[in-house]
Every structure is written in C-alpha cells, then in structure tokens.
Amino acid sequence: MTPRLSLTILVDNTAPADRNFTAEAGLSFLLETGGKKILFDTGLSGLFLTNAEKMGISLRNLDFLILSHGHSDHTGGLAPLAVHLAGTAPEGKQSRVPALIAHPRCFWQKEKNGTMNGSALSREEAGRQFSISLSAKPVWITDDLVFLGEIPRRFPFEQADPEKRTVHCPDGKIEPDTLPDDTALAFRSAEGLVIITGCSHAGICNITEYAREVCGERRVADIIGGLHLLTPSPKRMQKTGKYLNRLHLSALHAGHCTSLPAKQALTEYCPMQEVGVGMKFAW
Fold it and tell me: 142 to each of 4, 16, 38, 187, 225, how far by Cα in Å?
C-alpha cells in the first residue's frame, strides 16, 4: 500500500470564518504518516495546544517534534508544550517525550531591528525537556518523510538578505543572519513530492530543488506552508512564479508569511488553494 500523509493545521495566520479556531502570526502543523505522529513547529504561543484540544487531538503521544527554524513564531510554543507534556494525562498515563529535530543553529539567539526574535528556550533548556538531535544534513523520519537540513542557496534571486537580522554566535560574535537554519520537510507520495515549509527563508525554489535531489523524485505534487513572500520585488515574484509553474503542481497551499498580493500574483502561475487553522489534508 502506498504510504499516506495526513496534515492538520493547528496554527496559521488565518482561520476559516465558519470554524471555532483562533489564528495567530505563527505556524504549527500536525503530521501523521508511517505510524508516526509529528509536530512541525509550535507557533508563537501555546495556541496550538488550545486549537488541538478543540479539534479533539491529543499531543501527548508525539513521536517527533521538528522545528523549521529558530524564530519565535515557530518556536514560541516550546515551553507551553513542555509544561503540557510534563502534566499527567486525564487517564493517568505519562506523556511520551518526542525526539526534537532541528538545524544546529536553531537555538542561537536571533535579533531583528533590535528586538530578540529567536527561541524563548535555549539549547540547554530544551535539552532538559526533549531528546534533541541537531543536524545540518537530511534526516529520514520515516521511509518517505525527510527533514531536509540546511538548504543550498542555488537561485540568485532567492539569496537571503539579512536586512537588520543578526545572530549571536556561541563564541560571542554577532553576525548578520542569513538563516541557514531555515529548513523544510519533504514527503514522497504516489503523485510526487509534498513540500512542507515553515517560512521558506531559504527560498521556496531552493527548498524544492533540494527536496527533489534528496528524495530522488522530480515530480512535485503540492507545497504547503509559508513562502516568505511578504513584499517581494517584481523580479523575484515573477521568477518564483515561473519556477513553480514549471512544476505543474496539483495545488499550492501558501500560508503564514505569504502576503495577499503575493498569493494573488501566484494564482497566475499555480492552482492556489485555501489554508487556515483546522483544515486537514491528505496525500
């Protein structure tokens, strides 16, 4: 039987008006495949826990916790999750402690425009709560789902501009932050790859090309998550659109850090579909 992946949006920037869920400027997905339960990012706060409870979803039996990168809108729920897992479940059972997978720079202190915007938990603090594995190389979670690790930056139009972002290095230096810790997941479905992103600071075209290489699969069926297209230049928007158009996607589920003008522009190139808190997908 062909492996299947299910994905539930626990947190995103929008929530459908006909559902009793709350949105925030963050991202958190629950994935289930190959008998594994995987939390991808924890949003800006503990809201993902509230939404999960409303959906009747337990997060006490997670196998993996995967972080797309170290920004606060993706790691802000780490402490609430740790508290949640430390508590006793209603039926008296202890929660499972998930294995946390992230890039080695994920927990380095980050700053933008003079404000700290990295993980509220340090590497040491997170290590007391979770079993941590840090890797810049791909890590296979199941036979068909892979954590991509550090993404090669191959497309010139997607080279990261650190703007006023800086990172505090372990040796005490403060450097411009081009976010090499930004990564994504890729799933091999029968129809082609499903790319699951957090923010795509590395560039969605860079991410997709690397996923195709790592998975040995050229077909891409769907992309879901943030594309970090907030105020892209017309040149970048056009080049991104043309690249995605050549993939012949079945769907593009752009959310989180993708502006409305960018989504409207992408409809000229791709079959854009709605995303929002509480929505569920399967491939």
Answer: 11, 31, 11, 9, 20
